């Protein structure tokens, strides 16, 4: 039972990463202004990391007997974060603020996952979640400082 909660939570993390990967590409493509080169590169670095973790979560879920979501419709339905169509220009600073909000949601999700993995005595998943949380928190510090 404890493990089922962990599997469901890991699957929601898979879905969230499916959406986050796409959303970071949107920012990478459409960012404009004097910080274009910095942010264009930063968003690329971040979607690379998110993509790696997306795969890690899905494969860990398979390893513990789960079944990761694997369609765009499932990702949207089960993601903790929301996407938005790019139908008008988004200021670069707003993109960073959006990302800070999304990463804060993600940190909360990771904390919940760490608790669930602990309850299920799944050290490997717990370790994976802690390592990733460390990285996202560091990005949050830098993005917050970027915003001044
Ligand atoms: Fe690119």
Automatic annotation (TrEMBL):
GO terms for molecular function: DNA binding; ferric iron binding; oxidoreductase activity, acting on metal ions. Coiled coil: none annotated. Keywords: DNA-binding. It comes from the Bacteria. InterPro entries: DPS_DNA-bd (IPR002177), DPS_DNA-bd_CS (IPR023188), Ferritin-like (IPR012347), Ferritin-like_SF (IPR009078), Ferritin_DPS_dom (IPR008331). SUPFAM superfamilies: Ferritin-like. Residues 8-147 form the Ferritin/DPS domain. PANTHER family: GENERAL STRESS PROTEIN 20U. Belongs to the Dps family. This is Starvation-inducible DNA-binding protein.
